[in-house]
């Protein structure tokens, strides 16, 4: 009996059914593979996204100028002023033990610690960038040289659009005049009370000053807001090399004020020694002496003392401080302080040294700071590494104080 090959036998699937089944099977397999790939991609992208969030979201550490000396005149020379002419949260130690050393978590921790202990220089640069966009006003002055009398004449005329430094919305401005790099003498104008557009019209003479030395100097003007009970607030500054000026006749200038730095570029220096004893798990910090400290008081001096903070990660652990040296810009302290620091915590330890000016009637002023750790500035890192490389030996080094 002839059987049609196209006819389906009872209980057997037809060709159409088989074809549909094959298509469904292939589709399901492709879907499973695609889902697996998506899940893998999501995991990878999620890990990267989480890492970037942890790095970018790391909190930054926040941290919180004024007397400079002017020219040292030759023997017999003198400076004269004339009358006016109309947290980061610490990670659990158990997490550290279970994670591999090269994990993303350790990398994030390292970056976070570095951000929390920024060297002060970078923060200072950011602050100056912010100030540079601020309008600090401008100042008008004249300068000229009398060859017959060997006298340099500087006339401070006026200023305009000064910023308000007082709570009353105004300022009490005056100007200090220096010839850098000499810092022994300074001259200054009278204070103009509550005035953002002051007129001084005051003339200052640097007498007995040879022309050959004049052209080696930089005229530096600093505008400040006078405060009776605290240090004066800096408003702005101007500097002009005298070898760039035609001094044969009085030249008049209008100059925009720039954010104040230290006119000499220095807040002073501090000599200190570090001694690490690994068997005792301790560091001895010896504050030896300071030199050329900034004068923070109206009398042209300071009453310095030194605070020493031991910090672990971003937390203050212990504080020590020296005695106060009255009216001394070159004090000798010779005081030692011991701090207990286990070896395993050295990597996350910072010693913050702050030179302060003691004030009786107002808050104490910061003269300058030093951050000592393995990731501070180049000079600080060198001192830290020398200390570790020479255990049980005091290692002394001069450090420049920073804002």
From TrEMBL:
Keyword field contains Cell membrane: yes
GO MF, one annotated term: calcium-dependent phospholipid binding
Location of this chain's protein in the cell: Cytoplasmic vesicle, Phagosome membrane; Cytoplasmic vesicle, Secretory vesicle, Synaptic vesicle membrane; Lysosome membrane; Peroxisome membrane
Biological-process GO terms, alphabetical: calcium ion regulated lysosome exocytosis; calcium ion-regulated exocytosis of neurotransmitter; plasma membrane repair; positive regulation of transport; regulation of calcium ion-dependent exocytosis; regulation of endocytosis; regulation of insulin secretion; vesicle fusion
Self-association and partners: Homodimer. Can also form heterodimers with SYT6, SYT9 and SYT10. Interacts with calmodulin (CALM1, CALM2 or CALM3). Interacts with CD63; required for localization to lysosomes. Interacts with APP.
PROSITE patterns: C2
One GO cellular component term: presynaptic membrane
Membrane-protein topology: Single-pass membrane protein
Family listed: Belongs to the synaptotagmin family.
GN (gene name): SYT7
Entry keyword Lipoprotein: yes
Residues in C2 domain copies: 135-255, 266-399
Main location: membrane
The entry's keywords: Calcium, Calmodulin-binding, Cell membrane, Cell projection, Cytoplasmic vesicle, Exocytosis, Lipoprotein, Lysosome, Membrane, Metal-binding, Palmitate, Peroxisome, Phosphoprotein, Repeat, Synapse, Transmembrane, Transmembrane helix
Residue ranges with Basic and acidic residues bias: 90-100
Pfam families to which the protein is assigned, alphabetical: C2
Region (Disordered): 52-106
Transmembrane segments: 20-41
SUPFAM superfamilies per UniProt: C2 domain (Calcium/lipid-binding domain, CaLB) (SSF49562)
Protein name: Synaptotagmin-7
